[in-house]
Amino acid sequence: MPIIHSAIKKLRQDEKHYEQNKLVKLMLRKTIREFKKAPSSEKMSKVYKKLDMAAKKLIIHQNKAARLKSHLSRHLNHPKSGLTS
Q: Which domains are present in the chain?
């Protein structure tokens, strides 16, 4: 455990940010799962919005967000093409 006051405060902040980021990641995964079950353009826009938000807040990397968008757009264009990810 930290002894210095600023280190104690930093630890509290880190724990708080960790929990907030975890919630964002869980919401993102849930939204992606829902989209994969029944792809539609409305769900795709929701997924894109959540991916952009997570990338903007540096919760996920921008390239990962772009990669996921690319993969998910294939689900919308070819839902029966055998994509299993």
A: 5-77 (1.20.58.110)
